Amino acid sequence: MLDSLDPWPPELLARLLHPGGAVAAALAMAPPGARALDLGTGWPSLAAALVSCGLDVTIADPVLLRLRFERLMSAAPVTDAVHLALTSQLPWPDDSFDRVFVDTAEVHRARGDLRFVIGEVARVLAPEGVAVVAQDAGGPSSRGRLLRLLREVGLPHATVLVARPGRADWSRVLDESRWGQHLTSEASQASAPSVRGKRLLKAAIAAAGGVRWLPADRFVVAYGPEAAPCDPLAEILAEPAGSRELIRLSDARVAVLGQESFVKLPLSRHQQDALIQEAQNTRRARSTGFAPHVIRSVHVHDWHGLPYVRYPLIRERHARPGEAEQTIAQILRGLAPGRDAPLGATAFWERLTGARGARDADEAGARALRARVLDTMADVSVPAGPTHGDLHADNLLLVDGGAAILVDWNRFEPFNPLVLDAGYAAIEHDRRSHGGSLAQALVRFRDRELTGPLAELASSTMGDLDSAQAATLILLDRVVSYSQPRRRYKPWTMPAMARAVAALAD
């Protein structure tokens, strides 16, 4: 399906592979061994998230191709997959599942009767079970009607959660009653008057009781007659449930922001390993010159065998572009100058020469670039030392007193060409400042058209590399994976990578 000889359109892949559906697993998580039913949601990451949390998962879908897609894309596909219509009784006895997930929009597309389907959900749901029902605010069923249906079928207790407008990113999930408060808080932090004005208007509408018309989508978490209200994410935080502020989803993991701590919870097997590695890398980074800019504590815990990572909460603000450029340059200058070493002695070289490096380069069309580097550059001398691996403004936090903290250390490596950090930071700053593409910024770097402190720092860390060679290394460093299976997020990265490869190959 992902064969380069017969590629699927990137827009279709982006829709099919988006991790957004996994957030539903975190809204009503159950301990390992619980039985879960994905009833035709069409959320490709949901089943994998439930399986990674140790649940016994069944997928039932009226769209056969979605079942086939799940089997093709998952390293451990769900074995209990049923093709059925949403217009007939579900083929399971009463009280079969502890969790049921359903999307009202998908019921409508499948020409199912919502009253009948919700009744079947209640029938197969255990008395102590929980149903998570997604609802598009612009869909055919109103919130009021859905809540009435749930009451009529014996699920009278429900919590309404709303996602921040803009379903594509699923960046917020809040209790509906706190929506206006959250909008007001966001408006006070917005710098642009036009943005602040829009958010204040929404906050006023919410305060007047109009919150139901504002969110782009919502989840209704409905409880069986013997179910206790569940909020395992707040339990993980060891904070009162009401103190939960935000839930963010990124790359099939959930990040929960509470009053005192910040928790990352994995929603896939790969993310479990990646988060543990990120915690280890954060600790390793504290033993280098990066130490003043690394979070001081990080702890790995587990919840019913599911690992998660807890960080202390930082009250921060993101830096403005010029401010970020100056701050990152200052951080890099504060590191030891490194020592000259052949490129072949670095962690980057080890990744590039491996079998996975070859596969990643082939997928991005970078086979020739990789071969050129391997054939000619192993003995080229470069200043080497510790690298963050993903230096850009979004990973820089400024706290009270002017301190700067770098986050997301999953790409950290202790001995790498220093130009990888300085050069990528310069390229990202140029791309964001001018609104250009990665390819355009790389070409400008190669042609020495970039200016500013980061560009100057990158030039001073090239060693015996020329600017074209340095640009090639920076690109290959982005192409070659660190931990995640590339195919999961290929729709977001591959087109930009392929264009950058073509630009440097000219």
Sum this structure up briefly.
This protein has 20 helices and 19 strands. The protein has 506 residues and is of the alpha+beta class.
Q: Please tally the helical runs, counting DSSP H or I stretches of 4 or more residues.
A: 20
Please give the number of β-strands.
Answer: 19
What's the Cα radius of gyration? 25 Å
Q: Tell me the strand order in the biggest sheet.
A: 3-2-1-4-5-8-6-7
General form: globular
- Beta fraction: 15-25%
Measure the end-to-end span.
30 Å
- Stretches where pLDDT falls below 50 for ≥5 residues? 1-5, 166-170, 485-489
Q: Describe the biggest sheet?
A: 8 strands, mixed
What distinguishing features does this structure have?
Aminoglycoside 3'-phosphotransferase, Chain: A, domain 2; five-stranded antiparallel sheet; about 500 residues; 19 strands; 3 domains
Layout of helices and strands, plus pairs?
Elements: H1 10-17, H2 23-27, E1 35-39, H3 46-52, E2 56-61, H4 64-73, E3 80-83, E4 97-103, H5 104-109, H6 114-124, E5 125-136, H7 143-152, E6 157-163, E7 173-175, H8 179-189, H9 193-210, E8 217-223, H10 232-237, E9 246-250, E10 253-257, E11 261-266, H11 269-285, E12 299-303, E13 306-312, E14 316-318, H12 321-333, E15 339-342, H13 347-353, H14 355-363, H15 367-376, E16 381-387, E17 396-399, E18 404-406, E19 413-417, H16 419-434, H17 438-446, H18 453-460, H19 467-479, H20 490-505
Parallel strand pairs: 1-2, 1-4, 2-3, 4-5
Antiparallel strand pairs: 5-8, 6-7, 6-8, 9-10, 10-11, 11-13, 12-13, 14-17, 15-16, 16-19, 17-18
Helix pairs in contact: 1-20, 8-9, 12-16, 16-17, 16-18, 16-19, 17-19, 17-20, 19-20
